[in-house]
Each structure stands twice: as C-alpha cells, then as structure tokens.
Specification:
Helix 4 (151-161) packs across helix 9 (304-331), helix 6 packs across helix 9 and helix 6 (181-235) packs across helix 16 (463-471). The protein has 19 helices and 13 strands. By secondary structure, the protein is an alpha/beta fold. The chain has one domain (4-173, 303-537). The chain has helices spanning 25-32, 85-99, 121-137, 151-161, 168-173, 181-235, 262-272, 290-302, 304-331, 336-339, 351-365, 382-393, 420-424, 427-433, 446-451, 463-471, 485-489, 498-501, 534-537, and strands at 4-7, 36-39, 49-52, 72-73, 108-114, 140-147, 162-163, 166-167, 281-283, 372-379, 410-414, 438-443, 504-508.
C-alpha cells in the first residue's frame, strides 16, 4: 500500500541535487505553508527513522506542527527536540528484534540508509514512509538516517549564522566562553552583533564571486559536456568495441564493453579474467539515439542565455549552501559544544553518534555479528556521513578483538559526493584491516552526468559536475568527487592490496530513453530504484535486470 500524502498543494521533488535553487523563494514559501500529512497504514515512523537538525541534535520526526500524532509536516518549520532519546531508541530496537525476518545463513539484515544533500525534512520522511514496508518485505529491516540538508536552511546558515565554519559567537569571541557564565552570555550578544554586521558583506561577496566566476563556470560545464560527447563515439557500439592503441589484451573484448579511457580499457580487460586481483566492473553505455543527442545539444545551445542567469544563482547560493551542508555532516557526530567541553574525555553528543553508540551496544546484547548483518548505503552527500560512520563506529563490537567481524558488512555508494581523498582515507583501509566487508560503487554513465539539466534552464551537468567545477573548489585531483566514473577510474590502482581489489566493485549504469526502466538517468534518480537489493549493486550475471519502481509497485 502506498503512503497517503495528503497535501494541499503538490510538492516538488528535492532529492540529491542543487537544482531547486532555480525555484524562487516566493514559490518555496507558498509550498512550505501548505500542510502535508504523511501517513501509511501499518507504518510507525519511530520504528524506522533517526533524525537530526542542522545543529546535530536529535529531533522528533512525528510532526512539526499540531499534535505529535498528526503526522503534519510543513516546510521551514523546525521540529521539536527528541524528549527521551533512550525510549525512542528502545522502541526502534524492539521493532528491529521483532520484525526483522530470518535471513540467509542464519543472519538477519539491517539497512542503514543516509540520504544526500538537497533533501527537506519532509521529503526524507516521505521516502522512509514510502519504502520502509517494501524493504522489510524483501527481508531487510531499514533505518533511515535523516539530516537537514535543505537548500534554504543551509544557505541561511551560511549567510546569517556561520563564519569560517564556526557559529558567529565562537568565531568572534570563542575564548570568552571558557571564562565563566557571564562571559558566555556576552559572547552570544557579541556573536549576534557580528552576524548583523557581516551578513551584508557576505551576501555581496556571494553575488560578486558568482559574477566573476560565471565565465569559468560556464566554460567548465560546457567543456565537460563536449568531452563526454567525444568519448561517446568510441563507447556506443557494443558489438564492435575498439581498444585504445598499444593495448595488450584486445582479444578478451568478445564479451566486454570498451572503456572510456586507456585505464578503463585495462581494468575492464583485467576484470574479464575474474582473477582475485581484478576489479568487478560494469560500464554502461550511452544508448541515446542520434535524435536524442541532437535534441539535447540543440536545446542546450538554444537556452544558453538562460544559463547565464541560472549560473549566477547556482554559484552564488550553491557554494555557500554546500559549505553549510558539509559542516552538518560533521556536527551530527561532534557538536560544537563537544569541542568546547572542559572535560577532555567527553564523548561525542551529536545525534547520530548517540544513536550509533546505542546501536552497537544493542547488537552486543542481542547476538552480535553472529546473528546480524549490517548494510550501510549512502547517496550523494550521504557518503560523507557514511565515511564518518565507518571511521568512528565501524570496528568490531568488542574493542581490541580484531578476529571478530567489523560492524559493517556491505558499504554502498550511490553517486558519491565525497571526495576521492575522503574515500581513499576511509574505505580501502577498512577493507584491508578486516577480511569480510565489501564495497559497491554505483554511478551514472559519464554522459548522463554531463548532460543532466533541469527543464533545460540550469547549467548543464549533475550536482557532481558542479561540485568538481565550482562548489567544492578542489585543490588537487584527489579532491574531485568519488561518484563519477571517470574520477574513480583514476585512483583504483591505489588499492594496491590484492585482498581488497576483488571486494570493490564499480558499476556505471546505461544512459538513454531506452534504458530508463533499468538504469538511473540523473543524480537524484537512484531513489527510484530498489537501492536495498543486492541485484541493484551487483556486477555479475545481468547487471541491469533490476527495474525502476513506481508508487503503485511493490518490489
């Protein structure tokens, strides 16, 4: 049964992309004032959702207006803090114990899902309501890690509250806070004054920076689109693939797809032998017809004047929003007050840190890894949160017992917005230290990344293209995002441990209207597929057999 979303006005999708920057503030305010009751028979939100606000505090996801059982969710309205986290956690853990079906090999499976940027609280609750029972019916118990990553609140944080990664009171006079209660209050007052004084220059700087960088932004995204179209000429023919010059393994291409770069060719060649030292790789094709390509290129050229205006908005608002969202991926573990604490042994008090601590303790008391399998899935910016979860909470349940299994058995990146550096500093080391875990990279086809547009009005390129181009301001190639196929190919050779290679799979989906039912086409499209199923991650057999979901469809 699909969820009942009783809204007074239709709500636009805001999953995983900065594209909603193009909506005017007036329209957002109008939609935000419309009450929306999110309900589904048999679904209890406390059994599947852990939610934090922009400060990293645990909040109550039941409703943000009216009675707690009203299920009313309104944009731009804060949620109340969670009154009794321990009771909430216990209810969730009791549900896991009672409702998780038996799994294969005697283990029961728990899925921890972390959404990406550009999600309002309402959209993240809609997702949990929509999919929880379907995931449970497939044999997996889902827990959705919801965090505030909306464009509006993130940009307002950047504009009004944050200064160089700190709240204004810490930025201007943080040292006062250690000198007593009176000075702590004084720091708050001074911080507010600093906000008032610095907000106009911050806004002006955003507009000036966006204007100055606009030519570079436009050149970068158009160069990306042109270069990927050039690569298309050598990858579109699956029957007669052509290897790059001087390749020494051309004979294995009878059943393998040709790569987009010489390194891709070599890795695909190695993977065809299925040796312990090769990577499991599937590279999708650009299967657009000539008419599709001509339509996309023609409309892009025709709407070029609109790209100038949208590019200014995207750079001016998006860069600051990205910084604020990036900060929020850390405060859900280590809140600002943790860093200013007097006691040196203070533990993290961020909402997700508290949940993961209780989750680990609960697993210890209920059979441990002998009875439970834990799968960690992150989409877009959610992969930054995933990496932090792995670093802080991924070790075996019993400290110092390396012979035991680590917490996470499978880690899945979907269109990862984390940097290559963040990925390399986290996941490969985790796989090297522990024998069991496996890693899955799910990505769009490169041409899909370059061609994505919203109503032909935004700059070409997906969120990941924009991050590489201007949002994240990469200082070196390792600062590029890990969720683009062409980026990831450049660093996979750094997995120099043979035990690791065969446990890291790369899967880039197909692109084109003929492939829409079996392959995500845009950055935010991954949620429209059964992301909890191993068949969606796998590179063996028929890797594109899993079909798109619809609201009426039950997997």
């Amino acid at each position: 049964m699909k969820p009942s979303l009783v809204c007074k006005r239709p709500v636009p999708s805001v999953r995983g992309s900065f594209r909603t920057a193009l909506y005017s503030l007036a329209i957002l305010l109008l939609l935000g004032s419309a009450g929306c009751a999110i309900k589904k028979e048999g679904f209890k939100i406390e059994e599947h959702v852990i939610m934090v606000n922009g400060s990293g505090d645990l909040i109550d996801p039941h409703a943000n207006v009216g009675a707690p059982n009203s299920s009313q969710h309104i944009l731009f309205t804060p949620y109340p803090e969670l009154g009794n986290p321990n009771t909430y956690f216990n209810d969730l853990f009791t549900s896991i114990n009672e409702k998780t079906p038996p799994g294969t090999g005697g283990k029961r499976r728990i899925l921890l899902y972390v959404h990406g940027g550009m999600n309002t609280a309402r959209s993240s609750i809609e997702r949990a309501t929509k999919y929880s029972q379907e995931i449970l019916a497939s044999g997996t118990y889902p827990v959705f890690i919801n965090w505030d990553s909306s464009l509006t609140s993130s940009y307002l944080d950047h504009l009004l509250t944050l200064r160089q990664g700190r709240v204004a009171e810490d930025w201007c006079c943080g040292a006062w806070k250690e000198l007593g209660r009176w000075r702590h209050t004084g720091a708050k007052i001074a911080g507010f004054a600093a906000q008032v004084v610095t907000t106009p220059p911050y806004l002006a700087l955003d507009l000036v920076r966006g204007t100055i960088r606009l030519p570079v932004d436009i050149y970068g995204v158009y160069a990306e689109m042109i270069s990927t179209h050039w690569r298309r000429t050598r990858t579109q023919d699956a029957e007669q693939p052509s290897a790059w010059p001087n390749m020494d393994c051309k004979t294995v291409y009878t059943d393998r797809k040709v790569g987009i770069t010489p390194r891709a060719d070599r890795l695909l060649c190695e993977s065809s032998t299925l040796t312990p030292h090769s990577y499991p790789i599937v590279q999708g094709f650009d299967k657009r017809s000539g008419l599709e390509v001509a339509k996309q290129v023609g409309l892009t050229m025709l709407t070029f004047p609109v790209h100038i205006a949208s590019g200014l908005v995207i750079d001016a608002a998006g860069t600051g929003s990205w910084s604020a969202m990036h900060r929020r991926t850390t405060v859900m573990f280590n809140r600002d007050d943790d860093l200013w604490a007097h006691e040196p042994s203070r533990k993290p008090t961020g909402g997700i840190a508290l949940f993961m601590t209780e989750f680990r303790d609960w697993l210890k008391r209920n059979g441990g890894k002998e009875k439970w399998e834990v799968v960690l899935v992150g989409h877009s910016m959610g992969t930054i949160v995933v990496n932090e979860m792995v670093r802080q909470f991924g070790e075996p349940l019993e400290s110092g017992h390396h012979h035991e299994q680590p917490l996470f058995d499978k880690i899945v990146y979907m269109a990862a917005a984390c940097s290559l550096r963040d990925y390399l500093n986290t996941i490969p080391h985790y796989l090297e230290e522990y024998e069991g875990p496996t890693m899955y990279h799910l990505m769009l086809q490169d041409n899909a990344e370059a061609a994505e547009q919203f109503l032909w009005s935004s700059l070409p390129g997906s969120l990941l293209v924009w991050l590489d181009g201007f949002f994240a301001r990469p200082d070196a190639p390792l600062d590029l995002v890990a969720g683009r196929y062409q980026n990831l190919l450049r660093v996979v050779h750094l997995h120099d441990n043979p035990r690791v290679r065969s446990r890291i799979s790369l899967k880039a989906f197909n692109f084109g209207e003929s492939t829409e039912e079996t392959s995500p086409q845009t950055h935010g499209d991954f949620d429209n597929f059964p992301f909890w199923k191993e068949a969606f991650w796998q590179t063996t057999g028929n890797p594109f057999s899993v079909k798109r979901l619809t609201l009426e469809q039950t997997p």
